[in-house]
Specification:
Structural class: alpha/beta
Number of strands: 5
CATH class of the largest domain: Mainly Alpha
Radius of gyration: 35 Å
Largest sheet: 5 strands, parallel
CATH superfamily of the largest domain: Hypothetical protein af1432
Strand order of the largest sheet: 2-1-3-4-5
CATH architecture of the largest domain: Orthogonal Bundle
Distance between the termini: 76 Å
Order of helices and strands: HEHEHEHEHEHHHHHHHHHH
């Protein structure tokens, strides 16, 4: 037995012919050749369902049949194969060119004329199976390549997000050794964004962009950043520059997480009434990611201990947020913050600073 042929003998073959004698002859010929997965039907109306269930590799199809002719069968099959290779070998007693052209147009790959020669049928089946298997192999290789590309793309995405998180924590380490603030703050931002009705994609971008909100602290001198007390007016002016420093480090981007990170770094200290910094934006002039970050940043900062202050109780911090609704904070977002508070407190507990 030719090893090249042997590999095809487990292929699924369907015989469709309304003449039981023709079906039996084909079954015997295929059995003698060693094919082991042969199915047949004398009712063309069954073919579509059978193909959907079994995914045959070759269909031996008669043209002239009652109820539904071979052309109609191929019309049905074309919708199930779509861009796939439709392996139909037409069995026909008609030898006119019109019939052959119509069959080809319907998707047939080859012809066998009745009464058929056994050797011819077998060789045409092998030829079709070779093409079919090569087509399937190409499809499998494409799937493997696509999977590898997706895996690599995900690895690059994960690496980029991890770099963003690390970069965000670099600024936080300046005045908080654990860096847990950026984790709590970013997760709280996502929670508030979802509560406010933003879609999952936007909320996810806020989650990954918000850790860089205080990146500009890298450029603030220690004697100001870590001063254990109230800053002098000139020191406060220097401190406020961290928003612009952070935005400058991130740079200007046209889309995606980095664009959002730039907006958050620049605007998370803006206030609803226009008294914030650095640009004095007010109301919806402040991008929503900046307004969301403002609430979550202030809440977590108030409830966290720093070298220059003691931590507030949750109750006192929530009271501050609500008292400043409409002045410091977007009043609609404050209402959503109150609704999301239980989930935000869970985040706070799960990512607490070490004792």
């Amino acid at each position: 037995m030719d090893k090249n042929k042997e590999q095809y003998q487990g292929a699924g073959i369907l015989i469709v012919d309304d003449n039981p004698t023709n079906v039996k002859l084909l079954e015997m010929a295929l059995e003698v050749e060693g094919f082991t997965n042969v199915t047949s039907t004398t009712d063309p109306r069954e073919v579509l369902g059978m193909q959907e269930r079994e995914k045959f590799d070759v269909i031996l199809l008669d043209i002239q049949m009652p109820h539904m002719d071979g052309f109609e069968v191929m019309d049905q099959l074309r919708d199930t194969f779509l861009d796939d290779y439709m392996p139909v070998l037409v069995l026909t007693a008609q030898q006119d060119m019109e019939t052959r052209l119509r069959a080809l147009k319907c998707g047939a790959r080859d012809f066998v004329t009745k009464p058929f020669d056994r050797a011819e049928v077998i060789n045409r089946i092998y030829n079709m199976l070779e093409v079919r298997f090569l087509y399937n192999e190409r499809g499998r290789q494409a799937e493997v390549l696509e999977a590898k590309v997706m895996e690599r793309t995900q690895q690059l995405q994960d690496s980029r997000l991890e770099l963003i998180r690390r970069l965000g924590r670099a600024g936080e380490y300046r005045d908080n050794e654990t860096g847990m603030h950026v984790i709590r703050m970013s997760k709280s931002c996502r929670c508030l964004a979802i509560q406010a009705g933003l879609d999952e994609e936007t909320a996810g971008q806020i989650l990954h962009a918000s850790p860089m909100h205080d990146l500009g602290k890298i450029g603030i001198p220690d004697n100001i950043l870590l001063k254990p007390g109230k800053l002098e007016p000139d020191e406060w002016e220097i401190m406020k520059t961290h928003s612009e420093i952070g935005a400058d480090i991130i740079g200007v981007h046209e889309f995606g997480i980095m664009k959002m990170a730039h907006a958050i770094a620049l605007t998370h200290h803006e206030k609803w009434d226009g008294t914030g910094y650095p640009q004095g934006l007010k109301n919806v002039e402040i991008p929503i990611e900046g307004r969301i970050s403002s609430i979550c940043d202030v809440f977590d900062a108030l409830t966290s201990e720093r070298p220059y202050k003691k931590s507030w109780t949750v109750e006192k911090a929530v009271e501050f947020i609500n008292e400043n609704s409409g002045s410091h904070f977007d009043p609609d977002l404050v209402r959503h913050f109150n609704d999301a508070l239980d989930e935000i407190l869970v985040i706070r507990k799960e990512h607490a600073d070490p004792e």
